[in-house]
Amino acid sequence: MPSLAEIRQAAAFLRDRVRRTELIHSPYFSERLGAPLYFKCENLQRTGSFKIRGASWFLARQESARLARGVITASAGNHAQGLALAATRAGIAATVVMPETTPLAKVLAARDYGARVILQGLGYDEAADHARRLEQEQGLLYVPAFDHPLIMAGQGTIGLEILEDLPEVETVVVPVGGGGLIAGIATAVKAQRPGARVIGVEAANAASALLSRHAGRRVVLPEAHSLADGIALKAVGELTWPLIEALVDELVTVEEEPIAQAIVALLEKAKLVTEGAGAVGLAALFGPDAPVHRGVTVCVLSGGNIDVQTLERVVERGLLEEGRYLKLRLELPDVPGALARLTQVLGAAGANIFAVRHDRRRSRLPLGKAEVLLELETRGPDHIAALRAHLRAEGYEFDILR
Prior knowledge:
Helix content: 40-55%
CATH class of the largest domain: Alpha Beta
Order of helices and strands: HEHEHHEHEHEHEHEHEHHEHHEHEHEEHE
Number of strands: 14
Distance between the termini: 47 Å
Radius of gyration: 24 Å
CATH architecture of the largest domain: 3-Layer(aba) Sandwich
Structural class: alpha/beta
CATH topology of the largest domain: Rossmann fold
Strand content: 15-25%
Strand order of the largest sheet: 1-2-10-7-8-9
Number of helices: 16
């Protein structure tokens, strides 16, 4: 397992090769949390996540003969990009196997950084099985995404940077997927500040670490799917798991809706773009089952590789949950002026019409009726309640769409 000395050695190598990401204090979220809150912005790292740290250090420690035929890995996206750039810089051919469901933006980014990309399987585990077959068939060197001491040491350099920039830190909140990130950070933090709390956060649909802790053994899930695709794995690593058990003070999970809300909140209040995996820490801190944090707190934003289509859907979902966006379905009399009257009623209630679709031809509609689908910008839950009451008072029946 990586030692503090090995993490420091990795940090010395990476100093001029990766970005020393900013540690940003957030007055807004600090006030809400009731404690000083800082973001460690690995979403601003080149390649958009922390993964380049571990990949670069792993390659640096290999003998040239092992790298001669090239390297291969499996990844849901971020490790692929990190390895692609690290290998290109080192003059090494890289192949990455990604699930067929990987967002196009991550596929194109891995190619842009110089990797040969193969799409295989419906999830990370199927992609990893295929990558392992190619490793044997083509004599390539497999670069683990998380379950290796060198990978953990590379990721642990984040913990060193946090303590160097904020030595008084008392709580560090870290996303958990395979466990390489939190194992490395916890090793660095606990070795220098044993009293600091390290909290791991998983997506509720991929909570292998928490279930493993409850079971007293490493648990492999039958499936794992989440908006936080970067941490949606069936199991933590065989090597990372003992370190998580030994060093991580608390493990918590977050549901999908709070993850979406956290992405929107970071975008709007902190002007930071994060992917689902990068936002789970903030979602946990403000969730109903918030972990036990204390004092000066750092939340690691592990990545920002979210494609525009996903971001658009997430923003819409987040606004819906916050009561700032409302979607309605109504049936109106198919007569002139009916739609105009509806818009006047909505305007009088202070709703801003974002989109409207009027359909009089759907076969399931009663004769003499037209269907209207509305998307409205609203000012919060109280405004929505008043708007619904106003519509009913004006004689309108409607369905709320999600």
